[in-house]
Amino acid sequence: MSSTEALQGWLALEHEAVWLYPVIGARFDGVAERARASYGRHRDVRDRLLARLHDMEVEPVATALSYDVNRLRTRSRAITAARQIERDIAAACLTLVGEASGELRTYATAGLRRAALAEITWGAQPKAFPGLP
Amino acid sequence: MVISRRALLGTGAATAAVAAGLGGAALGHRLDDLARTVGIEPHPEPDPADDRLIKRVAADQNALLARIEATAVRHRGLRLDRFVTISTAHAKAVGGATSVPDVARAPADRATAVRALVNAYAKASTDRAADAESAVSPALARVLASMSAGLAQCARAVGDLR
Fold it and tell me: For residue A6, which residues of chain B lie inside 8 Å, CB to CB?
């Protein structure tokens, strides 16, 4: 996998997060504020990834036509979905860490740390190696 | 105040176990073992600079583990077991230390002790991120970056214990 492919994999997940959090916030009042903050962070990351890929003269991956809403039927399942997207993003960032060097590796390391902390925000327990299987 | 090695061996079970289990291991060329520990296929020829980096990270992580254990012993009500487990995994991943490090006694005041631990985790997280950026091997970079993220999680979670 190239660093460009790893970036595209990360962007695809950010597209999903930007879709996911407004749905969670709209459905469950108790977590609306947390979802709003998460949405804002992921929107910013998505925009930076889009700009980065455009600067590389690479066509960014687009959002999916649809995402699975069935996993958001209850508050508990929605929180699980939030933890899962953050876990997936951490894994994508970790892939990029190994494929990149210099500034891009720094960027991926920061993304991994941000996703790991977001997992905690959504109720996960700390673990030794976030992003690793 | 400094806890003696003997005293720490009596209380810091995880640190002692890591040191005992790896005391005879050579420090050089640990990268293969490190990568396999976390499920990554290692680079066939570890870079000497990476070996030096792993040696330094091992010393840092073992000192952190000793510090957490010292805090856990003095403030049993904090229930730091899960953090000891995580730091033990970190220490083992980078090969442990050849001896149990000396460590300053944890502050008597609970809030001060928690704050000191949060700061120690935050510094370790920052340091491991910088180490990941300087690693030659992609596998080592991944392990250190992941470790940095785990340490950041610990800093957040320990801070929530206040």
Answer: none
The reply to whether A129 falls in a domain is no
Say how far apart CA B88 and CA B162 lie, in whole Å. Answer: 23
What ipTM was predicted for this assembly?
0.94
Distance between CA atoms of residues B29 and B67, nearest Å: 27
Range of the domain at A63: 3-121
pTM > 0.90: yes or no: no
Residues from chain B contacting residue A125 (CB–CB below 8 Å): 82, 157
8 Å CB contact of B133 and A105 = yes
- Which residues have a Cβ under 8 Å from the Cβ of A78 and sit 6 or more positions away? A24, A27, A28, A31, A71, A72
A34-61 burial, b at 16+ Cβ within 10 Å, e below that, comes to bbeebbebbeebbeebeeebeeeeeebb
Query: Does A123 contact chain B (CB < 8 Å)?
Result: no
Residue A41 lies in a domain: yes
Q: What share of chain A is helix, strand, coil (3-state, %, to 5)?
A: 75, 0, 25
The domain spanning residue A24 has which CATH number? 1.20.1260.10
Query: Is residue A52 assigned to a domain?
Result: yes
Give, to the nearest 10 degrees, the angle between helix B81-93 and helix B48-74: 160
Min mean pLDDT across A65-69, A75-79, A99-103, B86-90 is at: A65-69
Q: B3: closest CA among B74, B51, B59?
A: B74
Give me the mean pLDDT over the B14-32 stretch: 46
Q: CA nearest B161: which of B122, B121, B125, B113?
A: B113
Q: Residue B2: which H helix or E strand, with range? A: strand B2-3
pLDDT digits (tens, 9 = 90+) for B124-141: 999 999 999 999 999 999
